[in-house]
Design a protein that fits this description.
Elements lengths: L1 H18 L8 E2 L7 E4 L2 E5 L3 H7 L3 H4 L6 E5 L3 E4 L5 H11 L6 E5 L2 E5 L22 H15 L3 E2 L3 H11 L4 H4 L2 H7 L5 H7 L36 E7 L23 E4 L15 E4 L8 E2 L3 E2 L11 E2 L11
Bound molecules: calcium ion.
Calcium ion (CA) binds next to helix 9.
Length: 329
């Protein structure tokens, strides 16, 4: 009887916690070498930034204008998103099975971005392991990986729309902790441009005044997860979205769908800032551009996997702790 009373007393509180978006859900995945996923519930948010936010961040006025106007976006259907950025180990399974090859990559050398025709995702110009985020891959390269993953699992994998990415970034950091992160705390929160990068390139660079231990990419998941269980949303690698880039949010869709300008995008929107990103970049609303074919050491991606029903992962398996991502089939 005492136990029953206790359960009755506890149940309402537990239900409340489970329904709160800040509860970190259990990750799942569709196969042992597939990316780990977390669920992003349906909801609505204000996309873009306010003048107060960009002024406080010290963002240049012309960049700030790209984040406006702020507008309401309703995400009617929940989706699953990568718990971490796509890793070298995960991409290697695809590359081995399909014979993928692609060389040539933009890297930061001595404080300037330079194209290295010999660099690729296995050898981007700094040391990487299976646990590193996959870089030196274009949006088109990742599209091939996502199509292969969809065929292999029977689920629809794709890049997030810009709105989906920004929604997950906001929902994962409801207190805007990252936005408020200053020089002292930044190096424990994310892999951005820092003292170790300045030392590695031997040149001044806009950066945090602290050392996060990673001049280039950090192994995925090295920094704390957000409230949705996602790691490295800000920093590490900037992430491709499916959206064609437009210079501001005028006329942007209100339903979270992909923004398109024609049959193919000339330029895409990239989100999140990278290891080379300066402090003002690490905000949900920040956006930069890339062409669909460009490969760079600061560009990577995170998967979206559509849910079979609005909030359930379907037949996916929970993640076994002894089975790390990219650890083989
Ligand atoms: Ca860093």
């Amino acid at each position: 009887l005492a136990l029953a009373v206790l359960l009755l007393a506890v149940r309402p509180a537990a239900a409340q916690v489970a329904s709160a978006s800040t509860t970190e859900p259990a990750p799942f995945r569709d196969c042992a070498s597939c990316p780990e996923l977390v669920v992003v519930p349906a909801g609505a948010f204000q996309m873009g930034s306010t003048e107060t936010e960009t002024k406080a961040a010290g963002l240049a006025a012309e960049r700030a204008a790209t984040e406006r106007p702020q507008h309401l976006v309703t995400i009617a259907r929940g989706f699953a998103i990568g718990r971490k950025e796509i890793s070298v180990g995960e991409f290697a399974v695809y590359a081995e099975q399909t014979g993928f090859s692609g060389k040539g990559c933009w890297g930061l050398v001595g404080g300037a971005w330079q194209q290295d025709p010999a660099a690729d995702w296995r050898d981007p110009g700094f040391e990487v392991t299976d646990a590193s985020p996959a870089v030196c891959l274009s949006r088109d390269d990742f599209a091939g990986y996502l199509a292969w993953l969809s065929k292999r699992t029977g689920h629809r994998y794709r890049l997030p729309s810009e709105a989906e990415w920004e929604y997950a970034a906001q929902l994962g950091d409801p207190a805007r902790r990252i936005v408020a992160t200053g020089d002292a705390a930044a190096c424990g929160a994310l892999n951005g441009a820092d003292a170790s990068l300045r030392a590695a390139i031997g040149k001044p660079w806009p950066s945090f005044d602290c050392d996060d231990g990673h001049p280039w990419t950090a192994p995925i998941g090295s920094f704390p997860a957000n409230a949705l269980g996602m790691h490295d949303v800000f920093g590490n690698v900037a992430e491709f979205t499916a959206d064609c880039y437009l210079p501001n949010h005028l006329g942007a869709p209100g339903d979270g769908s992909v923004r398109v300008t024609g049959p193919a995008c000339a330029v895409l929107t990239v989100k999140g800032g990278s290891w080379a990103g300066e402090p003002a970049f690490f905000r949900p609303a920040f956006r930069v551009t890339a062409t669909p074919q460009v490969r760079g050491t600061g560009f990577g991606a995170r998967v979206v996997r559509e849910l079979d029903s609005p909030e359930t992962p379907g037949d996916a398996r929970p993640v076994a702790p002894a089975n790390p991502p990219g650890g083989g089939l």
